[in-house]
């Protein structure tokens, strides 16, 4: 696949101002977003996942109306999960629990090769994921983009790796947080390599707020929902994790950029000045679209998912 430098340059040219100088917050977020795209499918080993899951003991509490709950304490979600009396769920939590139920009842993809067609800006992209090996083939159509990218070997966790992850919300949250911190370390190592190749020794210090645990959990959960290999049980658990993440805002009557009815789940990332939005099919719990809205700028990153299909034979280039 293209190097991160090539990806960033193309994105800056697409989203930057007329003189190709994007605002600093946009530049920072683009770097982060491309690292996410390259790393978002990387999972911990089953052994590491099990170790993290075994230490997860957090309970949950309800949040204010319109936002999801907060970890710690003995609030509405913890009580609701145990089946006892307690505080009522907020409207946002209720919607996310409905999404969780829809996801749990939806059939999983069948067939070894899963194809996901997307629209990203001015070009179309189809990713074919081998559910057994995790290899990803990427085909594109549009001006200024290559028609096919090199195969990303092991670019996604396998279906079996996803199935090995915990579905208890507290345990899953702990795994997601551990993954995020591991990926931060990988991204920092990659940045050091890039700087070394340019003869530099350290990055320009970034001022302002840093990512919180809740920022990282939201990012990990929504990125994982993107992957069509995630089975019904894990997908259902991810929506419960989002219901327990502070700052999550839910609009049950939204539409995506193609006009499809959707549940919008969003959260403001103050570290990057970005509103992260994901749009879900209320009937199936499947992701329809993800959007990054850059604060203080007209820049907006959209990934619109148009279809997910599967086959036992390799489909090849759809264009």
Kindly describe this structure:
The chain has 319 residues and is of the alpha+beta class. 37% of the residues lie in helices and 23% in strands. It has 9 helices and 11 strands. The strands form 2 sheets. The chain has a 9-stranded antiparallel sheet with strand order 6-5-4-3-11-10-9-8-7, with helices on one face. A two-stranded antiparallel ribbon has the order 1-2. Strand 10 (287-294) and strand 11 (300-311) form a beta hairpin. Helix 1 crosses helix 2 (24-39) and helix 5 runs antiparallel to helix 9 (232-243). The two termini are 18 Å apart.
Please outline what is shown here.
The chain contains nine helices and eleven strands. By secondary structure, the chain is of the alpha+beta class.
How are the elements arranged and paired?
Blueprint: H1 4-15, H2 24-39, H3 46-54, E1 60-61, E2 70-71, H4 76-82, H5 91-105, E3 113-120, E4 123-130, E5 136-141, E6 148-152, H6 159-163, H7 169-197, H8 213-226, H9 232-243, E7 249-255, E8 261-269, E9 274-280, E10 287-294, E11 300-311
Antiparallel strand pairs: 1-2, 3-4, 3-11, 4-5, 5-6, 7-8, 8-9, 9-10, 10-11
Rg over C-alpha atoms, rounded to the nearest angstrom: 19 Å
Number of strand segments: 11
Q: With helices defined by DSSP (H or I, 4 residues minimum), what is the helix count?
A: 9
Order of helices and strands: HHHEEHHEEEEHHHHEEEEE
Strand content: 15-25%
Largest sheet at a glance?
9 strands, antiparallel
The class by helix and strand makeup works out as alpha+beta
Unreliable stretches covering 5 or more consecutive residues: 1-32, 34-65, 70-85
Mean of pLDDT: 77
Shape descriptor reads globular
Largest sheet strand order = 6-5-4-3-11-10-9-8-7
């Amino acid at each position: 696949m293209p190097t991160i430098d090539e990806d960033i340059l193309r994105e800056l040219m697409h989203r930057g101002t007329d003189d190709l100088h994007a605002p600093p917050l946009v530049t920072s977020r683009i770097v982060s977003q491309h690292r996410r795209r390259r790393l978002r499918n990387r999972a911990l080993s089953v052994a590491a996942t099990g170790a993290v899951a075994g230490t997860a003991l957090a309970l949950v509490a309800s949040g204010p109306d319109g936002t999801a709950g907060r970890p710690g304490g003995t609030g509405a979600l913890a009580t609701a999960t145990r089946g006892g009396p307690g505080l009522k769920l907020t409207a946002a939590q209720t919607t996310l629990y409905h999404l969780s139920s829809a996801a749990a009842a939806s059939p999983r993809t069948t067939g070894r090769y899963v194809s996901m067609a997307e629209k990203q800006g001015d070009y179309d992209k189809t990713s074919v994921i081998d559910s057994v090996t995790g290899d990803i083939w990427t085909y594109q159509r549009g001006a200024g983009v290559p028609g096919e990218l090199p195969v990303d070997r092991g670019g996604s966790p396998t279906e079996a790796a996803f199935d090995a992850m915990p579905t208890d919300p507290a345990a899953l949250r702990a795994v997601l947080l551990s993954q995020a911190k591991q990926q931060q370390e990988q991204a920092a190592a990659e940045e050091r390599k890039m700087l070394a190749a340019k003869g530099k020794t350290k990055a320009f210090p970034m001022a302002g707020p840093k990512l919180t645990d809740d920022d990282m959990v939201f990012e990990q959960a929504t990125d994982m929902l993107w992957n069509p290999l995630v089975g019904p049980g894990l997908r259902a658990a991810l929506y419960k994790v989002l219901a327990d993440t502070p700052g999550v805002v839910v609009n049950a009557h939204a539409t995506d950029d193609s006009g499809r009815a959707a549940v919008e789940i969003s959260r403001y990332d103050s570290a990057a000045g970005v509103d992260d939005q994901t749009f879900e099919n209320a009937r199936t719990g499947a992701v329809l679209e993800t959007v990054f809205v850059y604060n203080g700028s007209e820049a907006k990153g959209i990934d619109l998912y148009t279809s997910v299909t599967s086959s036992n034979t390799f489909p090849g280039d759809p264009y």
